[in-house]
Structures are given as C-alpha cells and as structure tokens.
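Loading example: each entry is read as two labelled lines plus one structure line.
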Amino acid sequence: MVFSSVIFIFAFLPFTMTGYFIIRKELRNAFLLVMSLLFYAWGEPKFVFVMIASIVANYIMGLLIDKTKNGALFERRLVLLVAVVLNLSILFYYKYFDFFISNINNIAKTNFPLEHIALPIGISFFTFQGMSYIFDLYLGNVRVQKNFINIALYIALFPQLIAGPIVRYIDVNEQIVNRKISLEKFSEGIKRFIIGLSKKIIISNAFAVVADSAFDMPAGTVPLALAWMGAVAYTFQIYFDFSGYSDMAIGLGKMLGFEFLENFNYPYISKSVTEFWRRWHISLSTWFRDYIYIPLGGNRKGNVYFNLLIVFFVTGLWHGASWNFIVWGLWHGLFLIAERVIRNKNISIKMPSVIKWLYTIFVVIIGWVMFRAVTLSDALAYIGCMFSFGGELINGTGILLLRENILLFVVAVIGCLPILPKIREMSETKVIFAKAKSFASPVAYIVMFVIAISFTVTSTYNPFIYFNF
Amino acid sequence: MNKKTQNSIIVIFFVSIIVFLFTSTILKMPPILINILNESSDSDTKKITQKIENAYREIINKRNDLVDIYGFSQNLLNKKIIGNMDFYKDNNGVMQVFNLDDEYKNFYTRMLELKNTADSRNIPIMYVQAPSRVIDNYTETPEGFVNNENHNMDVLVDSLEKSSIPVIDYRKYISESGDKNTIAPQNVFFKTDLHMTTESELNLLNIVTEKLETEFDIKFENKEQVLNKDNYKIKSYDFLGNYSRSSGRYFTDIDTFNIYHPKFDTDLQLMDENNMLLRQGNFESVVMNGYENSSNINKYIYWVVNFAQYQKPCYEYVNLKNENAPRIMIVMDSLGLRMASYMVGVCSNLTIVDPRFDVGGDCLSEKLMYRDYDAIVVLQEISLKNSLLVKNSLRNANAEIVSHNAPVYIKRDKSYTIDITVKNTGEDTWSKEQDVKLCILQDGNDYGYRININDGEYIEAGEKYTFHLNGFVAPPENSTFIEFQMVQDGVQWFGEKEKVDIKILE
C-alpha cells in the first residue's frame, strides 16, 4: 500500500488510528502488527510469508544469541554467522539470484536458466532491520526481546516497513515497549505527514513527468539541454520522493508515539561528497557505518580506503541487482576516497563554497543518471548526450516541459534549502514573526493537505522509487 | 494563538477530513466489493486488491470537488498539461490529447476490404473524415506537442479518393464564413470532451445526406422536417466531458450539451443484432436512453451516450413512417452517435455498426451479406483505425458449376447422394478456413444447408472440386427444386447458380 494513495489516507489510516486509540494499551502492539501485516499484504499478498519467515528466523536467532552470550566466542560467532547467512540468503535469493546467474553465464559462457524471481517489496529494508536487531544483540547493546509480537512489530511496523527509514533496533527498542503519545506529538506527526505527502504528490510526481520524458527517449538521442533538464529533474524527483516518504514515515510514527531518526538533512546543499552522505539516506549510511565500516576496521584498522570502497560497493549493490547501481555506488565511493586522501594528506585546496557545491552537485547529478537509467550502457549514452556539444540543444518537448515546469524548478530549489528551519528560528526570536506564524502555520498546513489530497485523487498509481529496493 | 490551539486546529481538521471521507465512502463499498470478488475469476489476490484500490479512489466521497480543487490549483500555476502528458489545454481552452501520431495505413487497408465486399453486393460506400481537434488557423499548439492527426488524415483521404471511394472531409466545412453547411471552429467540438457538439453532428448530417443524394442518387424522406432545427425543442445541460474529468470545472470552461427533441411525430423501432425487437415508440423512447429523467442531473452526466446503443456491435432502427426511404448502414464509434440518431428520421432502416465491439467483423459481414442497403457510410474516428474489420472476402470470387448428378425424379422412400463439381474461376484459393462452402437452397429458401470443403484441401484458381450431398430425401410435396451456389459464409454469395427441378415418384 502506498502512503500517497486514497485507500491509505482515507481507509487504512483512519481505521488504524481509530483502532489504535480505542483499544487497551497492552493490545496496541498486537493491533499494530496485524495492521502492518495487512498493509504489507495489500500490495503483494504472497510475500507477507517471506517477511514472516524473516521475522521468525530473527526472533529465534535472537534467542540463540542471548542463550550463548556467556558461551565461547566461537559458539557466539557461529550463531551470528548462521543468523547473518539466514538473512542474506533470503535477500540473495529474491534480489540477487538472477543477477548472479546472468553474470556467471556472461563470464563462464554458461547457460544456466534464470528463475525470474519477483522481488518482495521492501525486502532490503526489513532484512536490514532484522539484521540490526541481531547485530545490536550480539554487540551487547540491547537485551533480547522475548516477546515475539514486539520483535515482529519492530521489523514489520508499517510506517517504515517498505521504504525506511531503516530503524536500528537500539534506537526504538524502548519505544516498542513504552511510548508516549501527546497532542503535540500527534500534531507534529500530522504536519510531517502533510509535508511528506505534498513533497511526493505535488513536487516529485511532476518532476517524474519531466525526467521520464528525457530518460524514455532512445539512448543517445536526447538533446543536450533536455538531457540536463531530465537529469536535474530526476535529482529533484528522487529527493522529494524519498525524503517525502521518510517525512510521512516519521510523521506516522509520531502519530503512533514513535520517534524515528531523521533520514535526510538537506543533502543538496552539501559541499563535498562526504558531506552529501552525511545528509542523504542517513539511516542507511548509519547502518553501513555501524555494521560494516566499523567492523571492517573503519578509519582505525586496515586500509581505510579499501574499507570505504567496500562500503560503497555494498551501498550500490543494496540498491539493486544491476551493474548501474554498483557503478553508482563506486562512483560516489571514489570521490569520497579522493576527498579522504586530500584530508588525510593535509592537502589544502582553497576554493569558494560555490565551487565546492558545484563539484558536489555535479557528482551527485551524474550519479543519479546511472541510478535512473535502465542499464549501464543506457546511462553512459545519456551522460554522453549531456556533453554532446555541437548537436541539437533542445527539442520541442524540452521547451514545452521547461515552460510548464519553470515554477516547479524554482519551488524545488527553495525546497532543497533549509529555509523552514530559518523561519522557525526567526519566529522563535521575533515576536511579530511568532504571531504571524501562529496564524499562518495551521492555515498553511490545512491548505497544503487539501491541495495534496486533490492531487492524490486525480493521480493514478504512482509508487515510490525506493519501493524497488 | 498559542501552540496548543494551533496543534488542536490541525489535529481536528486532519482527523475530521480523513474520518469523514472514510465513513462516507466505506458505506458505498460493499456492493462494489461483492462485484469485484464475483468478477475475479483468477486467484491473483494482487489484482483484486488493485481493483479495490482503484474503485475506492473512484468513489471517494467529494471526489469531484477535490478534482475541481486540483484543476483550480493547476490553473493558478498557469499549467497547461494534465497528468503524465495526457491532456493539454490549448489557446482556446480546448482540451487536446498528446501523441496522436498513429498512421492510418491499417485503416486504409480495411476500408478497401470493406469496399471490396460492398462492391460485390453493389452497395455504394462513402467515407466521412471527422475533423481533428487541432483545427487549422484556429488551434495553436506549442512546440513539443506531438499531434500529426491532420497530416495522417490528409494521407488517408487522398488514398481513399484515389481508390474511388467518395469522401466527405468535414475539416473543409470548418469556417467562420457562415456559408451553408459550414461550422465555426469554436463550435465543432466540446472543449472538455472528445466528441463533437450536437450542432456540429447535425451539421454533418446535412452534409452527409446531401452528398449521398448527389453521389449515389439516393432520395431521403422527410428531410425538410428532420434537418430543420426549428422543428426541435432544445434542452441544454452543463457538461464536463471525459477530457476534463481529471482536471475539473475550473481548469477549462464547462460545456453546454444541447439535446434536440423532435416536435414532430415519430414512430420507430429498435432491433438488436439478431433482428429482435427491443423498443418501439417515438424518438425519445426508442433512440434516447432517458438520462433526462435522472433524479440527479449534474455536469458529470455523460450525455453523449444518452443517444443510440453505445457499446453494442450493431443494431438497427426502423422508421415506420418512412417505409420507402433508403436503407443506410453507418459504421462508426461514439463520435457519430447523435448524427446517426437524427439520421433515423430520413431513412426507413438505419443499421449502426460499431467495429470496436463487432469482434471479428461478424455482425458487419453478416448484415452486408443478408441485407440490402442503399449506401454504407463510414465515419472515421481514431478508435476505428484498428478495429474496423470485415471478414476477408475472396478477391473476384467466382465459380462455375461444371457438373452434377442431381436426379430429376426421386422416389419418396429412397435416399440419394448428389455430387456437384465446381470450378474455381475467381482469383483466390478456396478452403475451409475461409468459410468457402457450397450452399444448397431448396424451393428458393436458404435453410442453412452447407457442404464444407474437406480439411486440408485447397482449391486453387482454375481447379475443380466435387462436393457430396448425402442423404437427400424427398420432401412431403410432389415436386421440389434445389439450387447450388457457392458462398463465403457470412461474407458473400458468388458464382453460378444451378437450378434443378425434381419430381417425386410415389
């Protein structure tokens, strides 16, 4: 089920919220679990069993890790290994099996048949959540969760189930057992949900039309300006799509009493690729940092550059079983390593901030082209169009789309800047701003919600980009 | 306003809206759910949930108001495009469709096939080219708006004319001049709907009847009465057509849908595809579908289908007041529903065929074979380009009855086998797949007795084939006659007809 769908907003949400608040507190987790399973099953009923299998496996492995916590290191590591293998096996089978076979076939010139396995929605997210529980438990950061409903709810909780944020167990284990609900928190949750819904349905979907027009053209035929417009449009689309989803997830979490960590922090204002990854998909970066980069040795043990390369290879692979995702990950990794080399060697490069920003956004935009294109060769052909000076600059479609969306581009640029926090800051320090905001704020949210739902009822099925991962 | 009040306002508003829309919509769902579950033969639960989701989106309470808000916001932003490059609002506020650049080669081929069949039945055929919504010297389209309809229509019209098919190109009648049979560009189409206005279709009816009379020497009856607008009482309704259902009333102007009610007496019948009587009475009770009697008249009523039998493969109107008037067949989709509806008044019989629902061209082919028409009119709209289908008729089909051993005298208590040898004197090969059969008529009646060509046998042009009629017995009468003629079933009769008189011996 999609957050921005009519059935979610006007059927699932009111039903779930009503049930949640009228039943006894001790039954709320069970109720939320049932609704979360329904939420998942709605989109792909048969795969709910895959998720349940993942939950059961992690629950049992959690108990085993706890049982062996005072045992021999080998025994503990063996249990951990089994748990990791179990989780990765599910992920590998559903997500990477065909990719693996097709690469084997290409390299060894064999002809093993592909299984054409359908990808359970959100499998990368719920698998990583399950593994987070296992790792936190193994590292002794949290206590074992003996209540099956609670561990199932942690993995399956519908707000963050299929597109994150990837909530680490250590961050929510206490909230699962005990959380506070207040009018203020509920209201904050609604506001956050409205912001996310508007980002997705008003801004991201409009950019999708522009990006699709450019990327759907035959490879190598996109005029230069349209190629750039398409790439920039996709850069906005993916940000407003994914951060919009995260906003809605965080908002829904708040309405239910949960506090999820932020997933985005204005990534497009970054002045280095390193900074970008501190601001983009924070929950995934944190997961990789805590559970891969640091265990590999981080920047203390081993070769830090190699460790970074591994992390970004895995980051790319996590996004999809395709070489363009891997190359996208490595592309970012290489720039990040270069920046680390410059920092570690104390090489001082003084550049105006705008140049640093231009460098970063250039790397990011080119990266998104690899991410959006269907294949790596399509990506290279598209990038070729972005630099094919001397050819056609723009075609009629490009001019039409530019005229139609010029205001949207302006709104998107503003939306990528930290203007709202500034306004909030000002309203807290100046009385006149505070008064204006106290009246304008509720009106703005109400208007935004009405407009967003008016877009929702007119738009057809439009899933989030990150549902594919 | 303190923080708590602000929070309360937001919570109350949000919760009220979602709970109100939930409770007021969910009550409408049970019959829809039952319907979806009954219709879903497959066990694919994903499809079922998708259908439920789509249905819920369509029936959500206040949907139309929300669509209006969406259109209003798009207008505020000076947007022209709706959806994923679906519609474009042009300089005249007319909703246009993107990417209409399909060519009509397929349609042209099928028109020739239809003409071939019509020729074999000596029925003249005329083609009416409906206009594109992109009207020369009126519609301004921006760069990047792909619509090659006019060019493709030009090619089609030119090809048809070269193939000796008379054409009415309605685009040539669009003019501000006010001359006879012309129509001003702003009155041709609804702004919000793909169909033509009622005035535009009535104007086209004038042109079509005139052309049929001059081209094919057909004399319509009651023209002065039927084609004079003064003889109608006009009722007008607000109308938001199918091109604006996703952008609402504030994105474009609302259209006015005019319905012309005859002031004169009418006496009509409606027959279904099997020639069974469905309705009888006046124009309103036979041709129209009673939408005006709805208790909830609003701008969303789809008035276009208040006329004729939408989504039926074929049907026929009989005008009991015009028994000697011409019989016409119109091949069209919904674009000409009102033109055809009012044309009933000048015909004795009017058969309407919608190829989109005439699977395999069965109905069209059968009507052409068994009914005598004075003319066939094909009104082209984009949806017909892939659906117009007449069963492939054999080229210059012809046959010669070479020999037969039909007895001249037969005994009443005996059964006979008759061999009939027929030579293919046409151009195409005969086979069972092409429904080529020998028909045996008895006493001038077609009782449906056919003899098939054996499986796997193909009779090339110039070759002979012997059909065997087994078990022929005497009828109760003292004499009878049988006739042999070749038939391509459901398409055409062809070749020599041989008659044999038979006397019965007691």
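The first helix of chain B runs from residue 3 to 26.
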